[in-house]
Specification:
alpha/beta; Rossmann fold; CBS-domain; 2 domains; 6-stranded mixed sheet; binds adenosine-5'-triphosphate; binds magnesium ion
Length: 357
């Protein structure tokens, strides 16, 4: 099946003689060499495939090219080389008019600092995209109302933006994107300006909404914890290039290089890992069923720990047909919390400490 959205060897170079620069990049030149000539290679040879209904996160430090990549996805920026396809359609083959149509009907963008119109009500702000599309007043009010309710803002329709907190204003931005029925959402650091608690709240809300809406979402962030919470898959960018694409577990357990690994140091592993990632799959089939509680491959790490603490033996991991697919000895859990498990240390029984009962 072809993906919803796809880039193929995409380059975006700012400055002079950009074609020439792409050629040099293809031959192995890096960003710094080009910068000496006054050109910036914002995106270098980026190939991504975004499947329908997934949250695809692009993660990277400031300047790594995330926003530039995002802007090529809805045709706001034209690639210097390479292709962008949306539903199989090469954006480069569309006229400006067709691109504008695509942006107003099928693709919505949510930015970091959402600019609301201060002199329009919350409802009118949420309905803005529909007004641009020429949707009649009554329908636009109804759809904006629904989108606001989805974003937890029922009852605030007639308020002014400045009566809302920053987090609520950001929700209006999200509601505006949802109201248009666009099923591709491009979110550029949409939650980055929010306080940590509100930010978590928004992440939860987005995940909750996504369960029913099943939009295709490209979400940009520089925060790996956010990336791992939200992303079905994550692309890590460095200096214009995508250095790894994978699930949160891939990135955490199998980082492509030291650079990616360095990011994962601050990640709360217990929030990312599931039984499938930590279990020992080398199991024999004919174990006796002692009737104890068991886990599933998707059981979150924290739950697994709680389970393990209550069982006198390793936790059995069962698939949907109750077949044993793995076991998790307690020691393994501790090992996975550490960044590098390393070899077991030798012990000559020198200082053995037992807890008092
Ligand atoms: N219109 C432009 N003209 C020239 N250079 C640009 C332009 N837009 C972006 N750049 C450069 O391209 C590089 C990538 O920028 P981009 O905004 O895509 O990074 P980013 O990963 O989104 O960063 P941030 O996290 O700070 O938003 C930067 O070096 C930036 O200065
Ligand atoms: Mg950016």
């Amino acid at each position: 099946m072809s993906p919803r959205l796809e880039t193929e060897h995409l380059y975006k170079v700012f400055g002079r003689r950009t074609d020439d620069s792409v050629e040099r990049l293809r031959q192995g030149a890096d960003r710094e060499e080009l910068r000496a000539d006054g050109t910036t290679a914002a995106v270098i040879d980026a190939s991504v495939r975004v499947e329908a209904g997934e949250i695809f996160v692009v993660m990277g430090l400031s300047g790594s090219g995330k926003s530039t990549l995002l802007r090529t996805l809805n045709g706001l920026l034209e690639p210097t080389a390479g292709r962008v396809r949306f539903d199989g359609q090469d954006l480069g083959e569309l006229t400006d008019r067709e691109l504008r149509e695509l942006r107003s009907k099928k693709i919505s963008m949510v930015f970091q600092h959402f600019a609301l119109f201060p002199h329009r009500s919350v409802r009118d702000n949420a309905a803005y995209g529909l007004a641009v599309q020429g949707v009649p007043r009554a329908e636009r009010d109804r759809r904006a109302g629904e989108a606001l309710a989805l974003c937890g803002l029922a009852g605030w329709e007639d308020s002014w933006p400045d009566e809302l907190s920053g987090g609520m204003q950001q929700r209006v931005g999200l509601a505006r994107a949802l109201a248009t029925d666009a099923d591709l959402l491009l979110m550029d650091e949409s939650f980055s300006a929010l306080d940590p608690l509100i930010r978590r709240d928004m992440q939860d809300q987005l995940l909750e909404l996504q369960k029913t809406l099943k939009k295709t979402i490209v979400f940009i962030t520089h925060d790996l914890n956010e990336a791992m919470r939200l992303g079905d898959r994550i692309a890590v960018m460095r200096d214009g290039r995508i250095v790894q694409t994978g699930t949160a577990e891939d990135i955490l357990l199998r980082p492509a290089d030291d650079y990616v690994a360095s990011f994962t140091q601050d990640v709360d592993r217990s929030r990312v890992l599931t039984a499938a990632a930590v279990m020992d799959t080398d199991v024999q089939g004919d174990e006796a069923d002692c009737g104890c509680a068991t886990a599933a491959p998707g059981t979150p790490f924290t739950e697994l720990c709680a389970l393990s603490a209550r069982l006198p033996h390793p936790v059995a991991v069962l698939d949907a047909n109750d077949g044993v697919v793995g076991v998790v000895p307690r020691q393994r859990l501790v090992g996975f919390l550490a960044e590098e498990a390393g070899e077991p240390l030798e012990c000559d029984g020198g200082r053995k400490v037992t807890a008092r009962a």
